[in-house]
Amino acid sequence: MATFLYRMGRTAFQRRWLVTLLWVLLLGAVGLGAAKAPASSDDGTSFMPGIEAQKAFDLIGERFPGTDANGASARIVFVAPEGEKVTASGNRAAIDALVREAADEPEVAGAVSPFTAGAVSKDGSTAYATVNFKVKAADLTDADKALLEKAIDQARDAGLTVEVGGDALAEQPEAGGSAEAVGIGLAAVVLLITFGSLAAAGLPLLTAVVGVGVSMASILALGSTFGLSLTTGTLATMLGLAVGIDYALFVVSRYREERANGHDPREAAGRAVGTAGSAVVFAGLTVVIALAGLSVVGVPMLTKMGLCAAGAVVVAVLVALTLVPALLGMWPNAVLSRGVRKRGPVADQPSTTAGNDTTGNGGSRWARFVLRRPMTVLVASVVGLGALALPAAHLEMGMPGAESKPVSSTERRAYDALADGFGAGFNGPLTIVVDAKGAAEPKTVVNEIVKKIGATRGVVSVSPAQFNPAGDTALFSAVPTAGPNTEDTKNLVRTIRSERADLERKTAATFEVTGSTAMNIDIAQALQSTLVPYLAVIVILALLLLLVVFRSVLVPVKAAFGFLLSVLASLGSVVAVFQWGWGASLFGVEQAGPIMSLMPIFLVGIVFGLAMDYEVFLVARMREAYVHGDRAPQAIVSGFRHSARVVVAAAVIMIAVFSGFIASGESMIKTIGFGLAVAVLFDAFVVRMALVPAVLALLGDKAWWLPAWLDRLLPHVDVEGAGLTVPPAHGTGPEGSEPTQQEPARV
Asked: In 459-553, where does DSSP find H-type helix?
């Protein structure tokens, strides 16, 4: 692989204008496709097939023709002025006028007055009207919304406090924005400090933006075909930007190193792609496998996010292997530090090892510090991350709704007004779907089921049943006592379902519980049961991949253990901040609550890929030094001397990019941005920089032990390009010359 990539790097360097033109044409083509493609509209018909709430949801669409269970809705909440009631003549007239105007809108399927539906609180202070639309919220035009907003303003002018819940008038999330700009700006500062060159700092940013541009334009172009949401694009942008900068950073850094060792620009580009590029390919592969593996969880939305993000990573790898060396060919000396440009490269300079390096750099000095006290560093790392991981044992998964929005939003104020007027459970009603197709008297059977569920402890009220045109299926709502994300409501859903078998025997009819509350409960339960198996698969995958790369038994075990610590510590931090509310105000979290159900599994997949990135880039240099004759402690110092600075810069860049998304208004994006930022912080600076060298120091030569029979079975993968051994004096040989292969000093 190293030789193939070596040739690719030299070719891209030589034919730089052609390679650059091809990328520009590709960006233009997908950009044109994105501009011409219809707007993305996720059908949302099957969020998680197989769960009861989803099956009931599908049954509604089948038995109630002409209704769209995915249609937008607006729950308009009216609060009378202090000392008045909504039933007063003036207030009632204003509410009825609003309902009439809403019902006359062409896209409205129905609007029900609170006085007709009995949607008035007992004290008369609060009422609500439900407006259902024929189309989804994303398909509503500004003109459709303007008519309803005008009617709402008129009701407010009459003296009523009017707030709007639901998704019809909610602001739709926008792709892009300040998060990316903040991340790029912080990355630019880190790169400038790391390289001391504007060109070297700008090149990874430029190529990363090109890669993200291609990825995002492709997602937008295919959005209407595959139902890709804006949230999907945001997550692909987040990961594509981070790894795009990092992968280009590793190639540029290795190019500078090869130039400093006396190689001419073309040879240096080839060797940079053959060595650092090999690590980029493997690191990118681990990220892609982890993201694509999300498809086995069984959540279509999660599958889309994983595959789109995996596609963005593939593009980032291709950019690093082709566009980066092409741009290096245009400005071969600009990326070098000012000192190197002035004095020129040092030809055929012998490499220093840990044994004869007396000065070193910050990385080698840190490695020596760890080598002097490995047990202390190891215990401190494990205890510290273990303490941070403790809250993860109390992880509660759910789908936070309007209660998690800021109090400045009308959705949050509508939620609070309904809770005050009708009780906490009113914001999370359960929808019961009764299939009475096999019953002799469907209406009698449905009424019996309604009465039974209405008498269940924890149910405040039930609505009258509504039948479909065929008269064999009915819908009604049950309002719980507690709020939608409480344990009491979860227990209520379990209780109602446990009573089903007895009712079905008596009535010859069946029913299922659905609605947003039940859907969220079912999804959280299904994903929570999937989290541990998925984590186990990821750990096994890590062991196998690293076994092939490092040809060691203990190094993969150590890497997998460190990965588990990183994941659990980051999940613990997310629980502490977003679920328990510790320091929540610092991150713009106004209401703590359950963690978004999709977040933990998505976090595990991404952190696995990023953890393997740092493991490969750092430990591969240690192994390269070890197989070429360094003793085990010397190899640790050598690996840190060559890679620590770049790995630290890459980690800081990722933290900066992910932290930028904490400012997002979307709860899931905010949570994932925080989780990924702290995960990179823990994995790069605690696990890879402290725990890894401490464990390797304690193991010594045993760290690189591999049974002979396993050595014969495993394929040989030259990740760091140890086989590229052309000396600088021969690096400028004739066209087509290839590097010689050299057997490693150790096996």
From this structure: 487-498, 500-507, 516-550
